[in-house]
Amino acid sequence: MKAIRRFTVRPVLPDPLRPLSELARNLRWSWHEPTRELFRSVDPDGWRAAEGDPVRLLGSVTAARLTELAADADFLAALAAAADDLDRYLREPRWYQAQHSERLPAAVAYFSPEFGVTAALPQYSGGLGILAGDHLKAASDLGVPLTGVGLLYRHGYFRQSLSRDGWQQEHYPVLDPGELPVTLLREHDGSPARVTLALPGGRRLHAHIWVAQVGRVPLLMLDSDVEENGPAERDVTDRLYGGGSEHRLLQEMLLGIGGVRAVRAYNRLTDGPEPEVFHTNEGHAGFLGLERIRELMGTGLDFDASLEAVRAGTVFTTHTPVPAGIDRFDRELVARHFGEDGELPGVDVARVLTLGRETYPGGDPGVFNMAVMGLRLAQRANGVSTLHGAVSRQMFAGLWPGFDAQEAPLTSITNGVHAPTWVAPELAGLCGRAADVPDRELWDLRRTLREQLVAEVRERLRASWRQRGAGSAELGWIDSVLDPDVLTIGFARRVPSYKRLTLMLRDRERLTRALLHPERPVQIVVAGKAHPADDGGKRLVQELVRFADDPKVRHRIVFLPDYGMAMARRLYPGCDVWLNNPLRPLEACGTSGMKAALNGGLNLSVLDGWWDEWFEPDFGWAIPTADGAAALDEERRDDLEAHALYELVEKRVAPRFYDRGPDGVPLRWTEMVRRTLTDLGPKVLADRMVREYVERLYAPAAQAHRALGAEAARELAAWKAEVRAAWPQVRVEHVELGEDLGEAELGATLVVRVRVALGTLRPEDVEVQAVAGRVDPDDAITGARVSVLKPTGAPDLEGRRLYEGPLVLDRTGPFGCTVRALPSHPLLPDPADMGLTALPAESRGEGAGVLLR
Fold it and tell me: Among 230-239, 445-454, 781-790, where is mean pLDDT lowest?
């Protein structure tokens, strides 16, 4: 019989056990092993059944067991110690508080469409969400006053299983907030706090606010499953990345606009500090800038001044290296939702549409681009690895016409991962002393972790085959799947085509020989989810599963369905090698390999994302990539790169793993593990990443936010309007580059003189620069160095000003120079901010021909 209504009955804890509730509701337990051990001791079998979720555990413990624990002096002592430890963690000053810097923001709001904090709160699909969760946890550990903002999806992403023939199947279990480690935000009178958005046709979208406490950091999640909503509005937060365009647009409006309102409500009810910096993690949350513009317009600022004030305190992080990964909506759909009867009344919808317009060459005038809006609404932006930053500058260069791609104001901060979450407890004790651990101890520990993975794989594989319809009598072979003494390679991630799940299958006979090698066998553990709408990705999963089902090799290669955080915590520590073979440069960062490295796993990867930045032969191997014409032929490229992968595994990776000394320890392999732990490990930490965000982006954004009060914002907006109107009259009319350039020598100094027509602008409104560096065969300047020229003397009879300055010839070989004029103002964050330049007239040819040999 089916229940007509579902509700949650919470346990009543005896008074001595009340601290258990607070410990369970603060997600610090997800990365604090002593607290996890305390809950495990409550009921070891129940802990396993609850999949390591304290809230579920406490809901299943019998009253008799609770009574027993309430009288157990040892347990109560451990409980008191855990509660005291959490209290100290929440109250005591940490790294951020020790900075004593007035430059730092009073608070930061961090918006993301997904957060992977723990498997007990399944609100993530992949790397973006896991990164966001690690960002919150590292911010908490460092004491950064950050508030996370997201959505509460009642069905999460999806649970994955396999059909008998290996086809991915999706399941969407209902998530009851009453069974999750979250608390409903309430008004002072006890009623639920909520935010409301206006929709076309007089409809309203209401949302409650659930709070997950991530250590010191509150995570606010908006939930549209509210009785006052109509059926369509109740389903807005049904699934992560589900539905059509309008559904996604409503999700992103609720995340951005509703998210700002949720932050205001939370701070009003808790007396928290208002954010000085808003961090938009990917374009999905970009509408937050529009809500902040609306707020400022309500105080009397016009749109342009409000835009400048909002930009000053906004940071935008892009995570995709391909245009296809960006949300783009039909302009008419956006216009309808921001029209007169929609959200943000009083804000001109034409101005809204301009923010998301693709104005660059090749852009589509009919779409609204969320990443483009995110960049236009933020003074500071970044990619998530050095290579991704370069790719992003190239991809978005059209937003700053007149500047080379490398000059686009888009920096990079390489992602990191939260060590307490991802490092196996057995390895945690090695932190800081891995350099001194004996080879035998390190090797034995790695084998223990491999052995644990083998047990985990067999358990999950057996469960998967039962879901596929197999009976127990058919599954005896699973007891011999994998071997704790065999080289183990891991590959787990989302399954878009560019990540190439099946590259390892290009030559199946060769792969089979490697798996079954009599002396140096290899075993592979694979996991990953394809997007529910991606049949191509599902076919890749099926192809891999069918290969792994072959009785000849199924003891050496397995596919584990339903990849998530719980599986990953065992998978990373247990693998000797982490494989990553995306199409370069389409991997923005690729943090899974970082998690493996923190556990002593060696990376075997294409030089993409973070691996391109930090690869050293001591840390693993770089898979060569096809270049030139071969890279354009997909089949040939994949054949070449698969061949390179097989060569590495057969001739370098496996021989080193099995090259044992007299005591059975592979000394060269163990030394690579040690170097990975001691030298690479500190680089890939989320603590390092968040410190960089604080120092390089949050602090400057807070300073800019304070500098752009109402009057300064009005002044800057008016100045920009004046400059844009006058810029067509700004011309570089004459350039002199020294005397006899044919005799120029290294170290010589040229005097550069430039005459510039400023039109109605003042000299202080314009900066004139000499740009010099080596030139390629097409006379394009590379590795440019910029020198600022100073105005001298009075204007001539035609109002032109003379600028001059020295140019040192500091490089040999073909050398080139040009000059340009750009807008200049103390409150501009970057010379390229306005995307305006004036260059020498092309017909004159000045500035393009300084050559040294």
Answer: 781-790
